[in-house]
Design goal:
Keywords: Amino-acid transport, Cell membrane, Membrane, Transmembrane, Transmembrane helix, Transport. The protein has helices spanning about 5-20, 25-35, 40-65, 75-90, 95-105, 115-130, 135-160, 175-185, 190-205, 210-245, 255-265, 270-300, 305-325, 325-355, 360-380, 390-395, 405-424. The protein has about 425 residues and is mainly alpha-helical. About 75% of the residues lie in helices and about 0% in strands. It has 17 helices and no strands. The mean pLDDT is about 90. The protein folds into two domains: about 5-335, Amino acid/polyamine transporter I (Up-down Bundle), CATH 1.20.1740; about 355-424, no CATH class.
Length: about 425
């Protein structure tokens, strides 16, 4: 029997898995630049950073399988390549970003050490925890999330009470689509595909006799509640950043802005406390990413311990190399990869949510192929070839907003269903 306590526990687990400390640096700066278009930015950001991830959890509630099941209707080979690609991106970008956030928020303001030294020591510790699996970080993680949320609520409340609701002029040309693209940087949609399977496994380990429909209802409710939590935190941080438009220099970095907002609202002691908590939460996230990747690779090589060890070493070496760079650089480097993998992830999530009669194997294949093809111009534009493909960008609807895949995927989805009905 599913109780309210079960729903609450799973909701909090989902929220904690989504709520990466590195994500906290994104909404304040987005709001800071949004000005009087803050509401459009919120809509865009929450579409890609809240709604799509929750759809991902709802898809898991329907599938009740693993990450591999998301793309297997395209083909087993494609699904395996997609899984490898997601994990490769995860250990190359969001994992190192946690070290960079830790350095900029928790180390640089208090010590004079270099970012390279921070990155080396950080990922040596990550490696130690990945190799010697322990429940310590799970326990710490459960304590960190409530502590950070408490401080954030205090920051948001103080900003709302202490600052005039004057947002100034926007610095963003396309607020809605800029919000969507910044939401990509949370990696929450990818996180939904990955962690949803973890939640399913956890539920089955506790009670493998729970009926399919009961589990579906549990995950559905938990997904909605965790989504509401993400919405309120992200919206509060974004609005807080918007209220601070006159308080900081226009070119302030994301981490400096979050620290500055904390300092102005709660004072130095709370700011130091927040920096420590965020650093610890970033560390648990990095350990989780490297461990999850190593587990996946180990599973592909018949539970080989060597595969686990090699993957852990590679993940930590990549972390050291990328983690020494500043957060802004890592976010810029991540954009091309996200412009390619995120559209594929979004369509896989949505196709797994719609009723099966509208998402046959044929529909899966043609929609994913169209998405990949029409994501290429957006990918090329993100790496500096926008002038070379200017004619193509002008021809593809929404391509000027780096969303050129959206309409082709929708059209092909409709045509694929018409063709499927005709073939029958």
């Amino acid at each position: 029997m599913i109780t309210k306590r079960n729903v609450l526990v799973v909701s909090f687990a989902l929220f904690s898995l989504f709520f990466g400390a590195g994500n906290l640096i994104l909404p304040p700066q987005l709001g800071f630049k949004a000005g009087d278009t803050w509401w459009l930015v919120i809509l865009g950001f929450c579409l890609s950073a809240v709604l799509i991830p929750i759809f991902g959890i709802l898809a898991h509630a329907k599938l009740q399988g693993t990450m591999f099941d998301f793309a297997k209707k395209v083909s087993p080979t494609f699904s395996l390549v997609y899984c490898y690609l997601v994990y490769a991106i995860s250990i190359s970008l969001p994992s190192p970003r946690t070290a960079s956030v830790t350095h900029e928020m928790g180390i640089a303001p208090f010590f004079g050490s270099s970012s390279l030294l921070t990155s080396i020591l950080y990922f040596i510790l990550v490696f130690v925890f990945v190799i010697n699996r322990t429940k310590i970080l799970d326990i710490v993680g459960k304590l960190l999330t409530p502590a950070i949320i408490t401080i954030l609520i205090c920051i948001i409340a103080q900003a709302f009470l202490g600052f005039d609701f004057n947002f100034g002029k926007t610095q963003i040309e396309s607020p809605f689509t800029s919000g969507i693209l910044e939401g990509y940087q949370t990696f929450d949609a990818i996180g939904a595909v990955v962690v949803g399977g973890v939640i399913i496994i956890s539920i089955n380990l506790k009670d493998n006799k729970i009926p399919y429909d009961a589990k579906k209802g549990l995950i559905f409710k938990a997904g909605l509640f965790s989504g509401l939590g993400l919405f309120f935190i992200y919206t509060g941080l974004l609005l807080t950043g918007a209220l601070m438009h006159n308080e900081f220099e226009a070119d302030i970095t994301r981490t400096a802005l979050l620290s500055g907002i904390s300092l102005k609202t709660l004072g130095n002691t709370a700011n130091v406390f927040l920096s420590i908590l965020v650093s610890l939460a970033c560390f648990t996230t990095a350990v989780g990413i490297v461990t999850g990747t190593a587990d996946f690779v180990q599973g592909q090589f018949k539970k080989s311990k060597h595969a686990y060890l090699i993957t852990a070493i590679v993940g930590c070496l990549l972390g050291i190399i990328m983690g020494q760079f500043n957060v802004g650089y890592i976010i810029a480097v991540a954009l091309p990869a996200l412009m390619f993998i995120y559209p594929i992830t979004i369509v896989l999530i949505l196709l797994n949510v719609v009723p099966n009669k509208y998402a046959t194997e044929l529909v899966f294949r043609v929609v994913v192929i169209a998405t990949i093809l029409f994501s290429v111009p957006d990918f090329l534009g993100s790496i500096g070839y926008d002038e070379s493909i200017a004619g193509l960008i002008n021809w593809i609807p929404l391509s000027e907003y780096q969303m050129g895949w959206v309409l082709p995927a929708l059209v092909v989805f409709v045509l694929g269903n018409i063709l499927e009905k005709y073939l029958k």
